[in-house]
Batch of 3 targets.
Target 1
Amino acid sequence: MVKKSALKTNLTIRIGSAFINPVNNLNGLWDKMAARLPQYHLQFIPLENDNFKFPDTYNNMGKKVDILFSPYGMSSVQDKINFIEIGHFHFTIMMHANDPLTNKEKITLGDLNGATVDMMPTGISKKVDNIYQEIERQNLNIKISKIDAHYTINTFNKFSESGQYLLSLSCWNDILPGLVSRPLAIPYSIPYGFITTNKPDANLKLFLKILQSEVHAVNQS
C-alpha cells in the first residue's frame, strides 16, 4: 500500500554529486531504481560550491541533499546520518608521475621515511588515526602536512602544484593527469556507499528501502 500511494505523485530525491564522487556509473543502479519507482524524479545536486561545506552537509542531510554517494569515515557525524554500505576503498599514496616510488607496486610507511605526506588532521577518521599511530609506532620521520578534513577537487589541485605525497583512496587513482597512486601496505580501508539522514520522511524512507535492496543484490552478485 505504501508503494502504491507513493507512485501516485511525482517525488524528487536530491542526490549529491561531486567530481571526485561521481554517481553516474553505479552498475545501472539508477535505471533499476527508476524502473521500480517510476514516479520518483532524481535530481543530481553539484556539491563543489560554497553552499555545501563539510561536515555541515553531513549534519544537515535531508535539507539540501537527501542522499550523498561518498567514502565515509567521519566519526563526528555518525549519530546524525544513516549509511548504506556498498564496499570499501583502500588507502593509497598519491605522488607525481616522475617520483621514484612509482616504480614500486605497493608503498610501505617505511618508504615514506624522511618525506612529507599530506593527511587530514587527527580526530576526524578512526582509520586515518590508525595510520598516524602506526607512523608513531614505527618511529618514522614522516613530516605530516595537515590538509582539509574533506577532500575536494581543490585538494588534488593544491597537491599537484606543491605536494610531495598525499594520503588518498583507490577511488581517486585517476583523478588528475600527472599524478600516480600506489596502494599503501596497511590493513585499513574506508567504507563507501550512500549517506542520508537518519530521520527520513515516508517518501525518502521508501526510496531508501528499495535502494538498499538493490545495493544488497549488487553485493550478492
Target 2
Amino acid sequence: MIGIYQESIKGIPCLHVVDQKYAGKARPAVIYFHGFTSAKEQNLPIAYLLAEKGFRVLLPEALHHGERNDGLADDKRQLAFFEIVLKNISELDTIRKYLLENQLLKENALGVAGTSMGGITTSAALVRYSWVKAAAVMMGTPKLQAYAKQLLQYVENNGKSPFTQEELNKLFEKLAEIDLSAHMKALNDRPLMFWHGENDKVVPFEQSHSFYHAVKPYYKTAEHLQFIGEKGREHKVSIPAMHRATDWFEQHLL
C-alpha cells in the first residue's frame, strides 16, 4: 500500500510518498519540484507511479506557494520567480541531509525532477550538486540566463521594470553560476531526460531541444541522455510523459 505523509523538513512543507513496506528503510529517492503557481499536491500522480516502483518520493512546497503562500500578489510573485528557484536549490540540500540523517536514502541514490519551474530547478541543481545521480526535466529549460532575459523582456513590455540595474547584475551573476547551458561539463555523464510539449508557449520547447543537441558530445554513454518531444502538447505534462519519467528513474536509479 502506498502511503502519503505530510512532513515539515526544517520548515519546508513536504509530502512524503512511499510504499508502506519501505516506510522506515533506506530507499532510492526522488525529490520532485512543482511548477510556478502550482502546489506539491498536483504532482501526486507521478509520485504514486514512482512509489509503486519502490522509490521514496519527496514533494516539497516552493516558497510563496501552497502552504507557504503568504498572500504575495500574483505580479509580485512573478517578479520573485528566480528567488523561488534559488530557494528551491538551497532547500534541496536540506531535504537530502534529512534523508541521510534518518537513514532513508539508499547509497546516495538520489534523483531530482520537476515540472516547469521545477524543471528549471532540476537543471540548476545538476550544476550545484554532483550528488544528484539522475534527473528528469519536465518542460523546463536548462538555459537559465536566456529564459531570465525572456521573462524580463515580458515584464518591460508590460510596464517599467521594477529592478535596478545593480539588482539585475546581481541576479544574472547568480544565474550564471547555475546555468546548465554554461556548465555542460558539470553533467559528467549523469542520466538526464528531457520531456517537452512541442507547442509549449510558456517555456520554449526550442531552449531544451537545442540544449539536448549541444550537450550530446559531452556524453560518453548515449543511453544516459534522452529527449522526448510530444507533438501537439502545450504547457502540461501528459500521462505518457509521467510514465516515461518513472521508467527513466527505474532504469538509472533503482
Target 3
Amino acid sequence: MAVEDRATDTADEQTDEPQPAPGPEPQPEAPVVRGRRGLRDLEPVLLAQAAHPRQAVVTALGIAACAALAGRELREVGVVLLTVLVGQTILGWHNDLVDRRRDARHDLPGKPVAQERLDPGSVWFAIACGVLLLVPLAVSTGITAGSCYLLAVAIGLLGNVVLRKGLLSWVPWAASFALYPAYLSYGGWGGRYEGNPPEVAMVALFALLGIGVHVLRALWGLVPDNKDGWTYLPLRLGLRLGAARLLTLTSVYLGAVLLGLAFAGTSVGLSQ
C-alpha cells in the first residue's frame, strides 16, 4: 500500500505542475521577392558611366570639329568622331580599372567599378571589344593617320599607370594630344589618301591644350590625391594657388590656347 500511495502522490505532483501555454503555429516562410534592377543598374548604363562620358564626348566632338574646319568631307568627319569616341571610351574604362581600389577607399561617386556595381571582368571584355573596333576604324583613314591615333591612345593608357603621380604627369597628356594633328593631316577616306605632315605650330598648340585639359580634369580630385601623397603638377599648383584660382587660371589658359589654334588654323593651316 505504501508503494502505491507514493506512486499516486508522484503522479498527482506531476499533474499539478503548470503546463506552458501553446505557442502560435509556425508560419511558412514567405518567398523572397527580388526587386527589379533599375535602369541605372543595367550593365550598358554602368559601362557608359565608367567610360568618363563627358570627357569622351567633348574630345570626340572637338577633334571632329577640327577635321571639319580642315576641309574634310562629312563622311570623314563622322569616322573621326566615332574613332576618337571609341578611343576615349577605352581610356576611361582603363582609368577606372586602374583606380578602382583608391576610388573605393575615398568613396568617390560615379565609379561603378569601385562600388562593385560593375564587374571588372566585364570592363576588361569591353576594352578588348573596343580595341578590336578601334584598330580598323583608325586605319580606315590611312595607315599613317591610324598609327598616329593608336599611338596617342597607347600613350594615354600608359599615362594611366606611370608618371601620373609626379611632376611629369603632364607629359603623357601633351604627347597624346600632340599626335592629333598628325592623325587629321595624314588622314583620308578609305585609307587611300596620304596627306602631308602637320604644321609644327599646330602640334605645339595641341600639346599645350593637352596640358590644360590635364589640369582641368585633375581639379576635382585634388583632395583625395593629396591624401594619397601625390605630387603631380596640378596638385602643386592647387596647393600654391588654391583650387578656385587654379580653375580660373586654367580656364583662361585653355581659352588662350583655343584662340591660338583658331589663329594658326586660319593663317598656316593644319598641314604643311
